[in-house]
Specification:
alpha/beta, Rossmann fold, 10-stranded antiparallel beta sheet, 6-stranded parallel beta sheet, 18 strands, binds CIS-heme D hydroxychlorin gamma-spirolactone 17R, 18S
Length: 722
């Protein structure tokens, strides 16, 4: 419905009110919008068409607003209630729709319907999240990432509510509120937001040696992923698979990203929090819009029930993983995200996950952390979504039929006919009826249990350091350096000396060299082991597991990578054509960055549309940089501090840089400004070619360098000021 067009101001408003002089002064654009062809009517929530959405109803042009204005009151009342409580943890997230396909039937292990037929595409909704920060915090904070998948299967919804790290801080759910209180902003001043670098967190952690393994993961670059599509996912707990004949095996779930596992470096993460706090959610959104659908393969580690006690750790302990060297991950299917949500609130915010949403063929283990979660998630949806009917919100609705005798409650949507709402009944022909296992009913696994009722932690949960040490030993040199730097940052922010000392004392049990380096960086002596003079006894098991290091991940694809091309007027167009076409053909995104917006004229007099001006971006938003030739273009860039910083910073962050012909001058300028006297960056991943035309090997070497992700081992990195 549009405002009626009428030249006579006296009759222009159907309300009968005179238009105000302000109406007459509206900008031309606003007038054009108001004058557009009739379209969908603007209405109240009762469907009443609205004739004036610009002015409230008042007594005369300058008089008070009338209480009678039901349209104003409805609109403002709804607005006042737009916010719902954010999730107590995992408040900040981004979601997407997609589908899951199993590669081969898993019927030997599980009767779960969605794991049987490779022809079946099971719809999914996935929500990624940070844990600590509020809804408005930055994406790139050092944190665990939530990786929650809702499978809408024919047998009901199955939620795999996991994280991007395979272990957790605590072994028993009863410690979860303490953990979260410790890591959230300190309650007296609400500082710091979205960060673990403060006293209460490290106070708690230093008193909870069971968190040692998880701390190693959180201090690694896994806690600052490059992209949601470049991180792994883990179900964390041991679950059970149960096949048709009732045989059970233990199972751990893994998501393996098709693009490999890649991270940011800390300086990038910090700068991104300012340059683009939405870095991860934007990356996901754009990848899907561009058709670069993020994909993960589903992997399972299956342990026969009879092998439950075969390991030197307990399968029920969520602070332990099963090393892939001991039980290889079998890849069984693929998840593809191919559709962005239509509405953030309706879908991503209102989606309600629950590890207790399982299907026949999948069951819980007795992991005490998992058992506690089974209570928490329904309870939290009640306070967040306000009603026991949250399952009726479209994003939460199963595609499987829902038939039961639950009734009424706030905001009930389903209108159930008939008078029968109890069971057993005869008036409704006994429906809905219980279903036996053979007909698809869920039957809990009949595990035999015996024991005294007690509050106790099993002795088999006692070794807190072996796997923390295994993780440390499995890291490459640069990963170890980054863990040390993270600990120095985090513990350096701690104000209470005794907390720092306790924490370094825990590190002595993981690795002596690690403890020494951290103690040295904090300006303190290496403290004795926790609780006294002797090291804590433990079982060291494997020397290392290569699957724990990101150095060993896939490095042959540039799909989803973003490449900045630095240009100014008179840039050489021919090299741009050759390089950019090849990059895009490999799935990378190319953006032209110039000192100003608008169009740049190449030396061949062609126009190039600028995507971003230098002051609005930074190298941290990109994975690689290409500097084409063109003498005057490069001279302009050399005189531009933002352009020089762009290149210098990209080098410092280990990114691939290609410079063609005169473009090498900007490289030299950046190196000199970084304090490298001879103007030559020393490390790998810098591809130059001068002065001949761009050739195949230049382009191929650049693509191979981008696929390497980061050259963190460049020898001159630490000397560079950027
Ligand atoms: Fe959660 N967790 N959690 N958690 N969790 C929530 O549920 C909780 C744990 C995880 O995108 C909450 O709906 C307890 C482990 C993800 O909506 C809450 C314990 C793992 C998400 C809750 C844990 C997770 C949540 C907050 C210890 C990895 C976000 C809002 C016993 C396996 C899901 C909500 C989304 C969310 C409780 C530990 C993953 C309060 C009590 C371990 C990915 O119910």
């Amino acid at each position: 419905m549009t405002t009626p067009k009428d030249d006579n101001p006296a009759t222009a408003h159907p309300t009968g009110l005179q238009p105000s002089p302000a109406d007459a002064n509206r900008s031309e654009q606003a007038a054009a919008v108001l004058a557009q062809e009739p379209g969908e009517a603007l209405t109240t929530n009762q469907g009443l068409p609205i004739s004036d959405n610009q002015n409230s109803l008042r007594a005369g042009p300058r008089g008070p607003t009338l209480l009678e204005d039901h349209i104003l009151r409805e609109k403002i009342m709804h607005f006042d209630h737009e916010r719902i409580p954010e999730r107590v943890v995992h408040a900040r997230g981004a979601g997407a729709h997609g589908f899951f396909e199993v590669y081969k039937s898993m019927s030997n292990y599980t009767k779960a319907g969605f794991l049987q037929d490779p022809q079946v595409k099971t719809p999914v909704f996935v929500r990624f999240s940070t844990v600590v920060g509020s809804r408005g915090s930055a994406d790139t904070a050092r944190d665990v990432r939530g990786f929650a998948v809702k499978f809408y299967t024919q047998e009901g919804n199955f939620d795999l509510v996991g994280n991007n790290m395979p272990v957790f801080f605590i072994q028993d759910a009863i410690k979860f509120p303490d953990l979260v209180h410790a890591i959230k902003p300190e309650p007296h001043h609400e500082i710091p937001q979205a960060s673990a670098a403060h006293d209460t967190f490290w106070d708690f952690i230093s008193l909870m040696p069971e968190s040692a393994h998880m701390i190693m993961w959180v201090m690694s670059d896994r806690a600052i992923p490059r992209s949601f599509s470049m991180m792994e996912g883990f179900g964390v707990h041991t679950f059970r698979f149960i096949n048709e004949s009732g045989k059970s095996s233990f199972v751990k779930f893994h998501w393996k990203p098709v693009l490999g596992v890649h991270s940011l470096v800390w300086d990038e993460a910090v700068k991104l929090a300012g340059k683009d706090p939405d870095f991860h959610r934007r990356d996901l959104w754009e990848a899907i819009n561009q058709g670069h659908y993020p994909e993960w393969e589903l992997g399972v580690q299956i342990v026969p029930e009879e092998d439950e006690y075969k390991f030197d750790f307990d399968l029920l302990d969520a602070t332990k993983l099963i090393p892939e060297l001991l039980v290889p991950v079998q890849i069984i299917g693929k998840l593809t995200l191919n559709r962005n949500p239509d509405n953030f609130f309706a879908e991503t915010e209102q989606v309600a996950f629950h590890p207790g949403h399982i299907v026949p063929g999948i069951d819980f283990s007795n992991d005490p952390l998992l058992q506690g979660r089974l209570f928490s998630y329904t309870d939290t949806q009640l306070s967040r979504l306000g009603s026991t009917n949250f399952h009726e919100i479209p994003i939460n609705r199963p595609i499987a039929a829902v038939n039961n005798n639950q009734r009424d409650g706030h905001m009930r949507q389903t209108i159930i006919k008939g008078r029968v709402s109890y069971e057993p009944n005869s008036l409704g022909d006994g429906c809905p009826m219980q279903q036996p296992w053979e007909q698809g009913g869920f039957v809990s696994y009949g595990e035999s249990l015996e024991g005294e009722k007690m509050r106790v932690r099993s002795d088999s949960f006692a070794d807190h350091f072996s796997q923390a040490a295994l993780f440390w030993r499995s890291q490459s040199a640069w990963e170890k350096d980054h863990i040390i730097a993270a600990l120095l940052f985090e513990l350096g922010k701690v104000e209470v000396d005794t907390v720092r000392e306790r924490m370094v004392s825990i590190l002595t049990q993981i690795d002596k060299f690690l403890a020494y380096r951290v103690a040295e960086g904090l300006g303190m002596a290496v403290p004795p082991p926790p609780g006294g003079a002797a090291d804590v006894p433990r079982n060291d098991g494997l020397e290392m597991d290569p699957t724990l290091s990101m150095s060993n991940t896939r490095k042959d694809s540039i799909v989803g990578r973003k490449v900045a091309v630095l240009i100014a007027d008179n840039v050489d167009q021919t090299s741009i054509h050759a390089v950019c076409k090849a990059l895009e053909a490999e799935g990378a995104t190319v953006k032209f960055i110039a000192p100003r917006l608008g169009e740049i004229k190449s030396s061949e007099k062609e126009s190039i549309k600028v995507n971003h001006s230098l002051p609005t971006v930074g190298s941290v938003l990109f994975d690689a940089v290409f500097i084409p030739g063109g003498q005057r273009s490069v001279e302009t860039l050399c005189a531009n501090a933002d352009a020089v910083l762009f290149v210098k910073e990209a080098y410092k962050h280990g990114k691939a840089i290609a410079a063609h012909h005169d473009g090498t001058l900007l490289l030299a300028q950046a190196a000199r400004s970084a304090g490298i006297a001879d103007g030559a960056f020393k490390g790998p991943g810098v591809i130059t070619l001068s002065p001949q035309a761009v050739n195949d090997s230049f382009v191929k070497n650049f693509i191979a360098a981008i696929a390497m992700h980061r050259f963190t081992e460049r020898p001159d990195l630490n000397a560079i000021v950027a």
